[in-house]
Amino acid sequence: MDRAIAIEVSRLCKTYDAHKAVDDLSFQVYAGEIFGLLGPNGAGKSTTLRTLITLLHPTSGTASVFGHDTVREADTVRMLIGYVPQERAIDRFLTGREHLQLLGALYHLTKEEAAKRIAELLKLVELESHADRPAKTYSGGMKRKLDIACGLLPNPKVLFLDEPTLGLDVQSRLRIWEYVRMLKARGMTIVMTTNYLDEADQLCDRLAIIDGGKIKTLGAPAELKIALGGDIVSLTLKETDRMAGLESALKNQPAIKAVRLTAKGLDIRVESPEKALPVILESANRLGCSIEFIQYNRPRLDDVFIAHTGRRIQDDIPKEE
Amino acid sequence: MKDYWQEIRALTMRWVLRLSREKFSMLFTLVQPMLFWLIFFGNLFQRAADSQVTQAPNYISFLAAGVVVMTVLNNGLAGGVDLLFDKENGFLERLMSTPIHRSSVILSRFIFVMTITSLQVLVILGVAFLFGVHPATGLLGIATILLIGMMFGVGLTAISMAMAFSVKSHGDFFSVLGFLSLPMIFLSSALVPLAAMPGWMSVLAQFNPMTWAIDAVRPLILSGWSEALPHVGMVVLVMLVFDALCLYGGAKAFRRAMG
C-alpha cells in the first residue's frame, strides 16, 4: 500500500557536547495518521520533535515535512505546521483571545480572517465564555485547550503535540483525546510525544518507541503487541492426565500459535481469542477434559515497552541537555 | 515588509498589554527611580553635598542627569527579563515555530523598552522641574537627552537579552543583574563628579559608558549648548562603539540559543 508521506526523518543525529540526544533516527509519518513518539523522559522525543518544528538544526541527517527540508526551507515548513508545546506556553497576563490574535498576526492573517478563525477555534475547544479572561485564571485543562487552539490557528497540515496530556486530570485527558481524534477525522496529520502508554495505545495509529536516542521498535500498537507472540489463554484442568492429549490436539490448529504445558494445565498463545477460544473449548469437550479455570491475558503496551527497552517506562533516565 | 511590520507591531502590543495588566508593578517601576533617588536621595544630600564640588546650584539639579541615566541603565539591564521567562515557559518556542522573521521578537522588545524608558525619563525631568531644575538647553536639549538615553539603552538591552538567552536559570540572571547594577552606578559620575572621587574609583569610572552618558546629559541640564556639545559628540561616538559590541554579542547569543 502506497501512502502519502507527511514527514520523512532520515538518519537524524543531534549531539550536545558528547551526549547523543538523538542517534541515527529514521522514520516516516504517513499523511492523515496519528503518529506517536513514545519513550521515557530524556529519550530524545522532544529533540526529535523540536527538529521537526525547525527549532533545532540536526548535527547530521535530515528531516522534512511534506518534502520541505526543516533547515533549508524552514519558513515553508513553519507555514505547514502547528505546534503545541509541552509546558503550558501561555502568557498568564493575556486573555485567550489575545493569544490567538497575536498568533493570527504572526501567521500574517488579516484582522477579518483571524477573527473568523478565532471564533471557530474558541467554539471548538469550548473556551468561548472564557475567551476574554486573563489566562492566569484558567484551570490546567483550559490552558491546555488554549494551547491546542493556538496550535490549530494556522490551520496546519501537521499538528505537533508535545506531551499533550501531561499532568491533566482524567476528564481533561479524555477531552483532549477526543479533539485529537476529531482532527484526524478532518484529515490532519498528528505527531505527538507521550510517556503515557495508555495514551499511545488508545490514540496512535502507529508509534515509535524511543530510548537512548534510538528507535527500539515501530508499528501500530496492535502489531507491536502481536509481535510479542500474541495473547495468552491459560487453562487449568481438573484432570492432569489428559493434558498431553489436549496439547497435541491443539498444536496443529491454525488459530493457535503455540502450546506449552504448565504444572496444572496449558498456556496457549493465540493470535485472536475470538478464533481460538471456540477451538480450544471444542477440543477440550471432545477429549473430555473438564476445565477448572480459564484466564485470558492480552499483552499490553507495557509488555512491548519492557520487551524492547528492558525496563519500565516509569524508570526515568536522568535528563541531560 | 508588510508582514514584518505586522509581526513587530503585534509582538510590541503584547508587551504593552502585559504592562497594562500589571498596573501595580508598572506604578512601582515608574515611581521608584524618581522617588528613591531623585526625591529622597536628592533632598537628603542637599546640604551634605558641597556645591563647590558638584558645580551645580543644588544637589538635585546635579543628580537629575544621574537619575536619568540610572533609569536607562536599570530598564536596559532588565530589558531581557520577559524574554527569559518566555524562554523558560516555552512561549518563545511557540513564537519561533511560526513563520516570522527571527529578529521580530527582539526588535519588538527593543521598541518597547526604549519607549517605556523615554517616557520614564520625561517623567523624571518633569519631577525635577517641580524641584526647580530647568534644563538649560530647552526642548531640543530634552530631545538630545532622550537620544543619548536610547543609544545607551539599546546596548544595555542587548546585553540583557544576551544574558537571558545564555543563562541556565533565571536565578543566575537576577544574580548577575544585581551584581552589575549598583557597581555601575557607584563607579560612575551619577552621584559624585569624577574629580571628587578617590583616585582608583575615578579611574574605573572613566571606563564606564554610563559616565560618558551622564557627562553629556548633565551640561544639557545645567549649563547650555556650548559646554554640552563636545560631550554630546563624544558620547555619540562612544555609544556607537558600545552598541555595536553589545549587539554583536547579543546576536551571537540569540543565534546560539535558537539553533
Description of the structure:
The complex is a heterodimer of chains A (321) and B (259). Chain A has 321 residues and is of the alpha/beta class. Chain A folds into two domains: 5-225, 3-Layer(aba) Sandwich (Rossmann fold); 230-298, Alpha-Beta Plaits, CATH 3.30.70. Chain A has helices spanning 45-52, 74-80, 96-106, 111-124, 140-152, 170-185, 197-203, 221-227, 243-251, 273-286, 301-309; strands spanning 5-16, 19-30, 34-38, 60-65, 68-69, 81-84, 158-162, 189-194, 206-211, 214-219, 231-237, 256-261, 265-270, 291-297. In chain A, helix 6 links the parallel strand 7 and strand 8. Chain A is elongated and about 80 Å long. The two termini of chain A are 40 Å apart. The model of chain A is unreliable at 317-321 (pLDDT under 50). Chain B has 259 residues and is an all-alpha fold. In chain B, helix 4 (59-77) packs antiparallel against helix 7. The relative contact order of chain B is 0.14. The chains are: A alpha/beta (321), B mainly alpha (259). At the A-B interface, helix 2 and helix 3 of A face helix 1 and helix 6 of B.
